[in-house]
C-alpha cells in the first residue's frame, strides 16, 4: 500500500512538471512566442503571411525539444485565424488572445 501511494505521488509530481498547468490562458506557455511571431509577421513585409508564420512556427517549435509536437499542434491549429487578425491590423496581443494562446 505504501509503495502504491509513493508511486501515485511520483506520477502526480512527474505530470505536473512535464505538462504545463496552463498553456493557453493569460501568460500561457506560448503567449510571448505568439505575440513576437505576430509582431515579426507584421513588420516582415512578407506578402504571404501564412507561409511566413508556418515557417517561423516550425523553426521555433523545432527548438522546444519534447514539447515540439505540442507546440506545432498549438500554433498550427490557429495559424489561419492569426493570419486573418494580422490582415485586420489587430495588435499582436489581441491576435493571440483571440486565438486562445494568451
UniProtKB/TrEMBL annotation:
<feature type="domain" description="Saposin B-type">
    <location>
        <begin position="27"/>
        <end position="102"/>
    </location>
</feature>
<feature type="signal peptide">
    <location>
        <begin position="1"/>
        <end position="18"/>
    </location>
</feature>
<protein>
    <submittedName>
        <fullName>Saposin B-type domain-containing protein</fullName>
    </submittedName>
</protein>
<keyword id="KW-0732">Signal</keyword>
<dbReference type="InterPro" id="IPR011001">
    <property type="entry name" value="Saposin-like"/>
</dbReference>
<keyword id="KW-1015">Disulfide bond</keyword>
<dbReference type="InterPro" id="IPR008139">
    <property type="entry name" value="SaposinB_dom"/>
</dbReference>
Amino acid at each position: 500500500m505504501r509503495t502504491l501511494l509513493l508511486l501515485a505521488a511520483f506520477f502526480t509530481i512527474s505530470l505536473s512538471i512535464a505538462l504545463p498547468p496552463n498553456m493557453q490562458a493569460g501568460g500561457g506557455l506560448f503567449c510571448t512566442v505568439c505575440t513576437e511571431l505576430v509582431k515579426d509577421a507584421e513588420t516582415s513585409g512578407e506578402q504571404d503571411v501564412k507561409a511566413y508564420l508556418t515557417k517561423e512556427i516550425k523553426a521555433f517549435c523545432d527548438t522546444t525539444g519534447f514539447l515540439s509536437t505540442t507546440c506545432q499542434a498549438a500554433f498550427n491549429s490557429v495559424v489561419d485565424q492569426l493570419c486573418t487578425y494580422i490582415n485586420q491590423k489587430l495588435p499582436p496581443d489581441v491576435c493571440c488572445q483571440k486565438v486562445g494562446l494568451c
